Automatic annotation (TrEMBL):
It holds the Pfam family AHSA1. This is Uncharacterized protein YndB with AHSA1/START domain. The lineage of its organism: Bacteria, Bacillati, Actinomycetota, Actinomycetes, Geodermatophilales. Residues 36-156 form the Activator of Hsp90 ATPase homologue 1/2-like C-terminal domain. Belongs to the AHA1 family. SUPFAM superfamilies: Bet v1-like.
Length: 214
């Protein structure tokens, strides 16, 4: 359990403002360091052979302008790819999402900060009219990204990565999710969220990702 909580504490979280082609957006921002060379981290976030071990299996035309799809349902277009420092994609989910292009984008930035250490910044921008936000707040996507970055840390450390569903169903994973949701609540408050809305969003997010097993 301590390892999971250490991993949770290793990430800095913030909620901010940005833009996407569809208009004004809010952002969920995650920043952390990995004890790995930048080329190794870049390979982990772009190589299909490694992506499936921490994110999801990916198919498609994996070049700038090409379309990709994950087994978990997310899909989009590769907007920018500047090895080994920058990857930007549109990020849509669900069969109806294609009717609303330009509403969600994910950008990953890598910076070497010391020998064998890489700073990773992930920014997910979603249009402010995004329907999940009123109920779940930034934790709607933030908890998912925390789980993914946990799996990425294990991969880069040469450890076996657990299935996301298995993690979410374990007592340790459920506690990780609850604390992740609370951390995103803190980020929401820091960005000016109303305390009552934030508290309700944290509860809804925790219930969604880790429902009562009974």
């Amino acid at each position: 359990m301590k390892d999971l909580l250490d991993q949770l504490a290793a990430t800095q979280r913030a909620m901010g403002k940005g833009s996407v082609p569809a208009g004004e957006a809010y952002t969920i921002e995650l920043r952390r360091r990995y004890e790995a060379q930048i080329d190794d981290v870049w390979d982990a976030v772009t190589s299909p052979e490694r992506l499936h071990r921490w994110l999801s299996s990916v198919t498609g035309d994996l070049r700038v302008g090409g379309k990709f799809a994950l087994d978990s349902g997310e899909h989009g277009e590769i907007l920018r790819c500047e090895p080994p420092r920058l990857l930007k994609v549109s990020w849509l989910f669900g069969p109806d999402a294609d009717a609303w292009p330009g509403t969600s984008e994910v950008e990953v930035r890598l910076v070497p900060v010391a020998t064998g250490t890489t700073h990773v910044e992930l920014i997910h921008a979603a249009v402010v009219e995004e329907p999940l936000f009123p109920t779940y707040g930034p934790g709607a996507g933030g908890v998912g990204w925390d789980l993914y970055l946990l799996a990425l840390a294990r991969l880069l450390a040469g450890r076996e990565t657990a299935d996301h569903e298995v993690v979410q169903q374990s007592p340790e994973g459920r506690e990780f999710i609850r604390r992740s949701a609370a951390a995103w609540g803190d980020a929401h408050l820091a960005a000016g969220g109303e305390p009552e809305h934030v508290a309700a969003a944290v509860e809804a997010t925790s219930t969604f990702y880790a429902p009562d097993p009974s």
